[in-house]
């Protein structure tokens, strides 16, 4: 009986880990790498992605994550970072 329970528990845990959520650009884990001078995102974010509430409201200027898209980059040198956000409409 204990052996069958151990096998059943192992199979259950394996099946749960195999069906994890895939990160999207709306999730920090699925951030789009910025490798170009100009980035254009024609499809706006909707909702929160597969990992909701990635922003901690206690140490952020926003209370929740709504319709976000995450980007990532690595600065090669120190200095100022400037960017311009231009909406389509």
Question: What is the spatial order of strands in the main beta sheet?
Answer: 1-2
Number of strands: 2
Proportion in β-strands:
under 5%
Q: By helix and strand content, what is the structural category?
A: mainly alpha
Give unreliable regions as ranges: none
- Fraction of helical residues: 10-25%
Q: Termini separation (Å)?
A: 64 Å
Number of helices: 1
The Rg value, from CA coordinates, equals 20 Å
Mean pLDDT across the residues is 74
* Major beta-sheet overview: 2 strands, parallel
Which outline best applies? elongated
Give the topology string: H per helix, E per strand.
Answer: HEE
Characteristics of this structure?
89 residues; mainly alpha; two-stranded parallel sheet; 2 strands
Q: Summed up, what is this model?
A:
The chain has 89 residues and is mostly helical. Helix content is 19%, strand content 4%.
Task: Walk me through the topology.
Blueprint: H1 2-18, E1 32-33, E2 71-72
Description:
The chain has 89 residues and is mainly alpha-helical. It is 19% helix and 4% strand. The chain is built from one helix and two strands, in the order αββ. The chain has one helix spanning 2-18, and strands at residues 32-33, 71-72. Strands 1-2 form a two-stranded parallel ribbon. The model has no long low-confidence stretch (mean pLDDT 74).
């Amino acid at each position: 009986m204990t052996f069958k329970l151990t096998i059943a528990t192992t199979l259950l845990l394996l099946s749960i880990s195999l069906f994890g959520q895939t990160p999207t650009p709306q999730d920090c884990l699925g951030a789009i790498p910025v490798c170009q001078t100009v980035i254009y995102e024609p499809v706006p974010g909707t909702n929160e992605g597969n990992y909701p509430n990635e922003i901690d409201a206690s140490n952020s200027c926003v209370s929740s994550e709504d319709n976000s898209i995450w980007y990532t980059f690595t600065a090669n040198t120190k200095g100022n970072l400037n960017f311009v956000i231009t909406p389509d409409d």
